[in-house]
Amino acid sequence: MSETWRNMSASDLGREIGAGRIDPRELTEAFLDAIDAHEFGPRIYARTMPERARAEAEAAANRARDGLRRGLLDGVPISWKDLFDTAGVATESGSRLLAGRTPDADAEVLVNATSAGTVALGKTHMTELAFSGVGLNLATQTPPNINDPALAPGGSSSGAAASVAHGLAAAGIGSDTGGSVRVPSAWNDLVGLKTSSGRLSNRGVVDLCPRFDTVGPLCRTVEDAAEILAVLEGRRAADLAGADLSGVRLMVLETLALDALEDQPAQGFEQAIATLEAAGAVIERRKMPQVAAAEALSGVLYSTEAYAVWGETIEGDPGVMYPPTLERFRAGANFSGVEYIRAWRELDRLREEWLAETAGFDAVIAPTVAIMPPDIARLTADPEYFKARNMLTLRNTRIGNLMNSAGLTLPTGVPSTGIMFLAPSGGEERLLRLGTAAEKALRRG
After folding, report:
1. Are strands 282-286 and 77-81 parallel, antiparallel or unpaired?
2. I need a labelling partner for 126 at 20 to 30 A (CA). Which of 72, 166, 179, 320 fits?
């Protein structure tokens, strides 16, 4: 039975708990045992929190017995990326620079999730300080891709994705600054939600680029994404009933997002488009020059902020970092304050144009990632290959961050490929309803 539980959605597990057919204590033990026994457990989890998990499961079991459950996910075990503060447990953000860093309090989103009754299993591996898209981390661990452990898992929420895909958590909580939820979700055949900037609290979350950092779930279904979003912010979940694609207007983004597509992502995306169109969606293809203009600003925007946050810490012991990651951070020292402010002013202008020109569509769609997961051994041996693959990996997802969008990725049916939906900031509920309808069509198709 525990093997079946490990492959169920978080929402289905919650329903089984509510019906009295699953005891949260047994469910939590099943996941903890699986983590300990799994060949890739140490590559996925930086550390587990068994005492906390068992105490939370015990409390959830008592509430279930007394008819006092706090919501659908009360008693459901989830994993947390190792940049969310956990009281009394090390939170190191995948970096030797933060070795032994142990906060005194939980991150605000973890406080909310705990209040909703979820069970915190442990902390998952991630890329160094969250500044990489392929998921490689030579300082700690590189988690395995679900379709081939020799391939990169996607990052920076690499362990979060692997924990769900390998059945070692019902859902994972990650962060997305340039694609760090959506890339590993796509490469591990999961659903990933990038929330709007500011929608969820970043208090107690280790920073990378605060103006771009967002929190979001990696999970099995769109329903799970909606329920977890609600848990993380302490609200009711979006109503997904009756979601339908009839008459939904979707814009295929042709600028940049379709360039240099590898065969499988192109195949998955075109198959998905055909399926959505057959289900009633209206598809229109458009070029958006704002995207290319925004991409040209990304170097100064991301690296300047990242180095401003981490430069002093990094320069205290730069030798512990993977050299290409160190180089990427240090690039931020080359830009002046004038250049940085000018870039933000220009991006604000481009965002306004994007919003105006996409206003007639329910969502903008694109392949989540242009390439397939690269080989870990080659990434490790060839720094230039790592840099080139990393930038191409993040190119499409970063559009959502640059354009201040909410984003959702769904599996296309072709392994390790995803279709990405972008909606205006604050549009998560609309996006989740659209995603529910798209998910149904894609699973049928």
Report:
1. unpaired
2. 72
| Confidence label for 17 from pLDDT (cuts 50, 70 and 90) | very high
**How does residue 39 score in pLDDT terms, banded at 50, 70 and 90?**
very high
Any idea which residue has 């206003």 for tokens?
A: 359
Q: Which of 339, 335, 327, 329 is nearest to 309 (CA)?
A: 329
Q: What single DSSP character describes residue 156?
A: S
425 given a catalytic annotation: no
Q: How far apart are CA 159 and CA 178, in angstroms?
A: 17
DSSP 8-state code for residue 167: T
Q: Which of 11, 79, 95, 156 is catalytic?
A: 156
pLDDT at 143 over 90: yes
Alpha carbon distance, N-terminus to C-terminus of the chain = 29
Q: Residue 156, preceding bond cis, omega within 30 degrees?
A: yes
Q: What does the pLDDT look like over 48-85, one tens digit per residue?
A: 999 999 999 999 999 999 999 999 999 999 999 999 99
Position 1 pLDDT exceeds 70:
no
Rounded CA-CA distance 50/353 in Å is 49
Bridge partners of residue 120, in order along the sequence: 78
Q: Which of 180, 196, 303, 405 is catalytic?
A: 180
Band the pLDDT of 445: cuts 50, 70, 90. Answer: confident
The string of DSSP letters for 101-128 reads: ---SS--HHHHHHHHTT-EEEEEE--SG
The residue whose two tokens read 């190792």 is: 82
> Which of 159, 43, 128, 99 is closest to 321 using CA atoms?
128
Mean confidence (pLDDT) of the chain: 98
H-helix or E-strand spanning residue 251: strand 249-253
**Quick check: is 123 catalytic?**
no
Catalytic one of 9, 11, 81, 416: 81
d(CA 428, CA 422): 10
Q: Are 94 and 81 in contact (CB under 8 A)?
A: no
Q: Please give the angle made by the CA atoms of 399, 403 and 407, to the nearest 5 degrees.
A: 65
- The three-point CA angle 415-377-327 to 5° equals 105
Cα 430 off chain centre by = 19
CA pair distance 445, 426, nearest whole angstrom: 30
Q: Length of the chain, please?
A: 445
85 neighbors 205 (Cβ within 8 angstroms) = yes
Under 8 Å between Cβ of 162 and 156: no
User: What would the pLDDT profile of 242-299 be if each residue is shown by its tens digit?
Assistant: 999 999 999 999 999 999 999 999 999 999 999 999 999 999 999 999 999 999 999 9
Is 387 among the catalytic positions?
Answer: no
